[in-house]
Design goal:
By secondary structure, the chain is an all-alpha fold. It is 80% helix and 0% strand. The relative contact order is 0.14. This is CDP-alcohol phosphatidyltransferase family protein. It holds the Pfam family CDP-OH_P_transf.
Length: 205
């Protein structure tokens, strides 16, 4: 819901940073993999309840996730780069949630499992729509720079990262916040399915 606005705010600084990386011949996929490796370190940070460190890792991972896209727009996007980026994103999202389960299994495990279950809905509805949109040559004018059709919703990347930040700032309230966000993810999944039905059926008429 907020991604289109967040992109406008961060576009310029990411572009300037990407130009610096480009001068050193750094490739977008290198940034993606480095950010992913850094992002996975959130697991031990959370497991040992170093929430401040986990927050820094999350923010750095998201910065690098933006940088790889900005760099790709300078050097030229690739299908594999877009694929790698989205795969790493979804694994990272689940890693953060798993980390809170490791931090306090008794208090957080059920909420963590529930949120990952809800992520399956948002992730699959997002990716399946992108596959069908590519098949039908449907483009999203709001995100023309994306390597695949970016279907919006109530819970997009910006909302997810905002919730991760809240998790780190209020770790004792992880369970209720996770369950509440999971409910919003369910709404997102339902609205995406309805949107897909309306779009694809209209094209068949």
């Amino acid at each position: 819901m907020l991604d289109r606005y967040a992109i406008e705010v961060i576009r310029a600084p990411l572009h300037h940073s990407a130009k610096v990386l480009n001068k050193f011949s750094i490739r977008p996929n290198q940034v993606t993999l480095a950010g992913f490796a850094l992002g996975l370190s959130v697991l031990p940070a959370l497991a040992f309840e170093h929430y401040g460190l986990a927050l820094i890792i999350i923010l750095l991972n998201r910065i690098m996730d933006g940088l790889d896209g900005a760099l790709a727009r300078i050097q030229g996007p690739s299908d594999f780069g877009g694929y790698l980026d989205i795969v790493c994103d979804f694994i990272f999202y689940s890693a953060v949630v798993l980390g809170f389960a490791l931090a306090d299994p008794q208090a957080n495990s059920l909420a963590s499992a529930t949120l990952i279950f809800c992520f399956m809905g948002t992730g699959s509805s997002f990716l399946a729509y992108a596959v069908m949109a590519a098949k039908r040559n449907i483009e999203n004018p709001i995100y023309p720079h994306k390597s695949l059709y970016y279907l919006g919703g109530l819970t997009e990347g910006s909302e997810t990262i905002a919730v991760f930040v809240i998790f780190c700032l209020l770790p004792n309230y992880f369970a209720p916040i996770a369950l509440g966000f999971g409910a919003l993810c369910v709404i997102t999944t339902v609205t995406r399915i309805l949107s897909a039905k309306a779009t694809f059926q209209a094209q068949q008429v």
